[in-house]
Amino acid sequence: MLVLPSPPFVLGSWRIKAAIMSETRRFRHKSPLSKTNNASASVKPSDSDSTATYSASLSQQLHVYVRKNKRAKGITTIAKLQDNHNKVGLPEIEDFAYRGANELTHRKMSLDVTPIKSEVASSTTRNGGSPACWEETLEGIRKMRCSADAPVDTMGCEKAGSTLPPKERRFAVLVSSLLSSQTKDHINHGAIQRLLQNDLLTPDAINNADEETIKKLIYPVGFYTRKATNLKKIANICLMKYGGDIPSTIEQLLVLPGIGPKMAHLVMNVAWNNVQGICVDTHVHRICNRLGWVSRLGTKQKTSTPEETRVSLQLWLPREEWDPINPLLVGFGQTICTPLRPRCGECGISHLCPSAFKEASGSSPVSKSTKSRRNKKL
């Protein structure tokens, strides 16, 4: 490429002309421009051109060639992207708004969202397929649960207030569901029995009771202080808005303080005999993932929350199984498929379970940490 001297450096005009002609001939011989761009290569200085004018012309020509080649590629790529945008409808980043953990909405309704919707739909279809041998697996669990020897069979939330009139029983089921979070069945059952014995299992009685009294009666359920506060609020809401009864829809139940999706579905199933969804607690969440029955939408990864498990499970499990699946798997999780050291050797469906014998059967992480502390002391 021709390199001209800087303006302060001056040569004779004949020397500049000679240098320019020499560089021009060399450039024509080596540059691909001489083969592809005859118009550019044929530019010659005329006798009427001044040295400075021709120098600037040739310098500009060479500069344009190099930059134009680079720009041409970029322009071609941009043109293709713009053409693809018109054909496929690639969305602009500004067209989207993030509105919650699981919702991606488009600000303007257009064809731009069509490819995204198609991808989500195909992922849902793939995830919606039922897992292999699920009916055989479920039947095997039923056989292991036929003895009904799990705590949930006698002390579960659905047993609360079973001898009470319908309206009072519905409230008892709601209270039991509230107290069941982070609490074992036998502890929760004991708290319900103490409230019942003290005539504090109705909205009116709880609304008029002292919060400290409620705390003492429900202790030692998990987070009993917070639950006592929420129980007072729920009783007041039931009296003010529902005439002493409980809400009859999922949406209304979820508004109550301390009530989550698992509790709301359980109350709807048991209290109102209205199955709107699967009640998924920690046992159902764990076992469904161990069996490979559920996965996160569009992936093969395990679900990370009970609510994700519920959504995934409802995609394929027949609706008639939605109600009985909870006590069935909860009891199975309490007796065989336990959180730590599951009893795979005693399980009748271990040959169908992809997680069988994979979890450590030795000491729990707690005992390991205890050993570690002991070793440090020694």
Structure commentary:
By secondary structure, the protein is mainly alpha-helical. Helix content is 57%, strand content 2%. It has helices at residues 13-30, 33-36, 38-41, 51-88, 114-128, 134-144, 151-155, 166-180, 185-197, 203-208, 211-218, 224-242, 250-255, 261-270, 282-290, 306-314, 325-335, 365-377, and strands spanning 96-98, 104-106. A two-stranded antiparallel sheet has the order 1-2. Strand 1 (96-98) and strand 2 (104-106) form a beta hairpin. The longest helix is centred in the N-terminal third of the chain and has 38 residues, at 51-88. It starts with 12 loop residues before the first helix and ends with a helix.
Which terms summarize this structure?
single chain; 378 residues; mainly alpha; two-stranded antiparallel ribbon; disordered N terminus; disordered C terminus
